[in-house]
Amino acid sequence: MKQTKAIVEEITKVNDPIVENNVHKERYLGALKQNNGKLDEEELGQSIGFSKEYTDKIIDELLSDGRIKSQTAGTCRYKPTEEKSGI
């Protein structure tokens, strides 16, 4: 019975839209960090399988979370914010 409960919990976690959205934000943020301004934000989203609309949604959420910020230089209009170290 414990195994069944664990399996159900894992399936539920995988199908959780909030968890999925957070994974997509992390995926986009990782791609943005590696991009170094080569692709614009829409091309970057498309390169990881996101539609323009979904990319815009992810960007809006990352801006709201303070994880990215606007920039004027370069091809891409956004860049990751500086991560604060715990030191």
Q: Overview of this structure, please?
A:
The chain is mostly helical. 60% of the residues lie in helices and 7% in strands. The chain has helices at 2-14, 17-35, 41-47, 52-64, and strands at residues 68-70, 78-80. Strands 1-2 form a two-stranded antiparallel sheet. The longest helix has 19 residues, at 17-35. The protein is elongated.
What would you report as the Rg, rounded to the nearest angstrom?
Answer: 16 Å
Beta-strand residue fraction: 5-15%
Strand adjacency order, main sheet: 1-2
Helix % is 55-70%
The ordered H/E elements are HHHHEE
Average predicted confidence as pLDDT: 85
**Low-confidence spans:** none
Number of helices, counting only DSSP H or I runs of 4 residues or more: 4
- Termini separation comes to 44 Å
Shape: elongated
The largest sheet, given as strand count, sense and whether it forms a barrel, is:
2 strands, antiparallel
Which properties best describe this structure?
87 residues; 4 helices; elongated; mainly alpha
